[in-house]
Sequence to fold (98 residues):
Amino acid sequence: MNNITKVLASLAIIASAPFITIDDAKASECVRGDGFTMCASLESRNGRYNRWNVTLINSYTTERMNVTCYGKEVDTWKSNGGLSQEEANYLAEHFCAL
Fold:
């Protein structure tokens, strides 16, 4: 399996993970799946805007992102890690959609 396929497989698992039900009182949460760990911390909330710090670790790479969601849509994101722009955008989009 090539690296992009591994990342996309991890992201597909993340998309089906039941963890993104983070309460205001519990602003940080991690999920450990088959070959990956993903953590998300709610940094701020303003109306429908939610700013998150998201970290994805799998056998392929580690990615740290700042994601601002507007409802279930991505407003902006910045990333630092081994994902390509396409993979990071995919992660941000799927994260906000949860």
Helices lie at 3-16, 85-97. Residues 3-16 form the longest helix (14 residues). Residues 3-97 form one domain. The chain has two helices and five strands.
